[in-house]
Amino acid sequence: SFQPFTFMVEAPGAFVCLGLMLCVMNMMGSE
Prior knowledge:
By secondary structure, this protein is an all-alpha fold. The chain has one helix at 4-30. 87% of the residues lie in helices and 0% in strands.
């Protein structure tokens, strides 16, 4: 089942990965 507290603890790493992917896709699209 989904555990919000565990997600909050593991969230930073996931957000960093998502942010990097979005940044790369954004740069590739604007070039």
